[in-house]
Amino acid sequence: MRCVIARFPFDLTKSGVLEAMKGIKPEQAAGASVIIGRRTYPVKQVGQVITRQDRRDFSAGEVLRAMTQLGFTCRGLPEAVAPARALSPLQKAAAMLGHPATV
User: Fold this and answer.
1) Strand partners, 74
2) What is the CB neighbour count within 10 angstroms for residue 39?
3) How many CB atoms sit inside 10 A of residue 101's CB?
4) In angstroms, rounded to a whole number, what is the distance separating the alpha carbons of residues 36 and 20?
5) How many CB atoms lie within 10 A of CB 5?
6) What is the pLDDT of residues 22-70, one digit of tens each?
7) How wide is the angle at C-alpha 65 spanned by C-alphas 63 and 68, nearest 5°?
8) CA 70 and chain centroid, separation
9) Contacts of 83 (CB under 8 A, 6+ apart)
10) pLDDT (0 to 100) of residue 82
11) Angstrom distance (rounded) from CA 30 to CA 8
12) What does the CA dihedral 54, 43, 26, 57 come to, rounded to 10 degrees?
């Protein structure tokens, strides 16, 4: 499959990616990741290995798109949980009593 990463065209195959990542120890994945074989790799590490470019030269989205098209399982960034709305003193008291506050 032909894909463009960091404005350079690459001909990638699933078997080629598997071969390139063979023997590479995965780093700690804090953000987006790709499951290759039985290991979970950070997207930027995979991109660096398969393109031989510096991680600052490409985005995680470019590599995620290419790995998804090749059939690898990709995980994006975890969804941010919305902060809980602060309760007013009246609502706190009503919650402790087990009755909903009507304001």
Assistant:
1) 34
2) 13
3) 14
4) 11
5) 19
6) 999 999 988 899 999 999 999 999 999 999 999 999 999 999 999 999 9
7) 105
8) 16
9) none
10) 57
11) 26
12) 0
> What is the separation, in whole angstroms, between the first and last Cα of the chain?
60
Q: Could you give phi then psi for residue 60, rounded to 5 degrees?
A: -65, -35
- Cα–Cα distances (Å) from 69 to 81, 87, 99, in that order, read 29, 46, 52
Query: What is the reported pLDDT for 100?
Result: 66
Of all residues in the chain, what percent are helix, strand and coil, respectively (each to 5)?
A: 40, 20, 45
Closest CA to 72 of 98, 47, 101: 47
Residue type, 97: L
pTM attached to this predicted model? 0.69
Q: Which residue has the tokens 């960091």?
A: 6
